[in-house]
From TrEMBL:
A Pfam cross-reference name: HGD-D
Entry annotated with the keyword Iron: yes
Source species: Claveliimonas bilis
InterPro entries documented for this protein: FldB/FldC_alpha/beta
This protein's UniProt keywords: Iron, Iron-sulfur, Metal-binding
Family according to the record: Belongs to the FldB/FldC dehydratase alpha/beta subunit family.
Organism ancestry: Bacteria, Bacillati, Bacillota, Clostridia, Lachnospirales
Protein known as: 2-hydroxyacyl-CoA dehydratase, D-component
Length: 425
């Protein structure tokens, strides 16, 4: 670990003082970490989560190392369409998390704010803007974003287009789930494939998209089984394991590789020990660095996160005979689209199926929807007699999270659900 820490310090120093030389060293670290995960996996994790960790590191390391093999996106961009053209989608939110592995998030955030980016903007977006503006992060050839679910998406990608000259496609997602709205978005998706044809020189094949959606349907069915198994079996994972699963469900969904992994996890979990602790349903983002949260949710037999709403933000079957309408419907019906009352209702359905002992809602700094809507979810959980804890913090900027306060509130909450009392904090 001493060598790793020294390398991280070296890369951060290079990024600050010689940004033009730091990108290759960042990629070298990603590739080295990919091989470390393969050869020396984390023994505290189940084999399935070990494989997932390696898969997500490989996605980032391999894509960034091959120019022209990826596009930037937000987490809700339709990766299925990029797959039709043999492109990977790398979301700026996830890339910001990877940059935090070099402890660069504070430098990038400060850099962004010092050049005029609003302090109230989501810290994931500030991290990425700062990375690009500081000349550390190498830009791609193209990007795509949606209006779902963050109001900062369009402004961030417009800014990057203006300052870094990265052209992008914006997908305007309606709130209403009706035929007219689905047709409106489906037409945008068709136009988007034309842009991808022009940029890649490849011809779009609808049959390929249909095959991807069939694989996606099967993956989602298998993942639902996995979450059901987690109600009954102990499956060692860490807080960051759920972040990797969220990445997989949004960036690799529809690939045979990811489907095979979920099938493997379903086989492995059934060989595990019964889980007799408290089952937690996690809402919104995962502050993977938070020490108190890691203490209680990293491979802990007493508390297990059985699911996260951002992993299962869409749960229906896709109509593969009408792939563009199916994708449009998937985006529009996403749990994070529209009013928070819609989200609260869908989380209620998820809780009714998974029967968690408690819900934890993490309100990420800069996310107005999470902070403003958490009370609606609180009321929904009260009606269902499910204890709920609301935690305030930051998914990536450690300076906006107070570990002592989180530890105090979390321990009090876990003690209450341990006694069987119904509470909402």
């Amino acid at each position: 670990m001493y060598v790793v820490d020294k390398y991280i310090d070296h890369v951060k120093e290079e990024a600050i003082n010689r940004p033009e030389k730091s990108w290759d060293k960042i990629l070298l670290g990603f590739r080295a970490n990919k091989w470390r995960m393969k050869l020396l996996p984390n023994r505290n994790l189940s084999r399935g989560y070990q494989k997932l960790e390696t898969m997500m590191m490989s996605l980032v390391a391999d894509s960034l190392s091959r120019e022209g093999s990826y596009v930037w996106g937000n987490i809700f961009a339709p990766c299925e369409l990029m797959q039709c053209f043999d492109l990977h989608t790398l979301s700026i939110e996830c890339l910001s998390c990877y940059m935090s592995g070099y402890h660069l998030e504070d430098y990038f955030i400060d850099y962004a704010q010092n050049i005029g980016i609003a302090p109230t903007l989501c810290s994931y977006h500030k991290t990425f803007v700062g990375g690009v503006e500081s000349k550390v992060v190498k830009k791609p050839e193209y990007a795509v974003t949606t209006s779902l679910s963050c109001d900062g998406n369009l402004n961030t990608f417009r800014y990057l287009e203006k300052k870094a000259h990265v052209p992008f496609t914006f997908l305007d997602v309606p709130y209403s789930d009706d035929k007219e709205s689905i047709a409106y978005l489906a037409d945008q998706l068709r136009a988007f494939t034309k842009v991808l044809e022009e940029r890649t020189g490849k011809t779009f094949q609808e049959e390929k998209l249909q095959k991807i959606l069939r694989t996606e349907n099967e993956t989602r069915r298998e993942l639902k089984k996995f979450f059901e198994y987690q109600k009954n079996y102990y499956y060692p994972g860490e807080l960051i394991s759920h972040l990797y699963m969220m990445m997989g469900m949004h960036l690799l969904i529809g690939t045979e590789e990811f489907l095979d992994l979920i099938r493997f996890m379903n086989e492995e979990i059934q060989q595990g020990e019964p889980f007799t602790g408290k089952k937690i349903l996690w809402i919104h983002l995962l502050p993977f660095y938070q020490e108190s949260l890691k203490e209680y949710f990293n491979s802990n037999r007493d508390y297990q996160i059985i699911a996260s709403d951002i992993i299962l933000d869409f749960m229906d079957e896709l109509d593969t005979e009408h792939p563009f309408e199916a994708l449009a419907g998937k985006i529009i019906k996403n749990l994070y689209n529209g009013s928070y009352a819609h989200k609260a209702e869908m989380i209620g359905q998820l809780a009714d199926r998974l029967k968690p002992d408690a819900v934890i809602h993490f309100c990420h700094w800069g996310c107005k929807q999470a902070s403003g809507g958490s009370i609606l979810l609180k009321e929904k959980m009260q009606k269902m007699n499910i204890p709920m804890l609301i935690l305030d913090g930051d998914g990536i900027d450690k300076r906006n999270s107070h570990d002592g306060q989180i530890k105090t509130r979390l321990e009090a909450f876990l003690e209450l659900i341990g006694t069987g009392e119904k509470t909402t904090c």
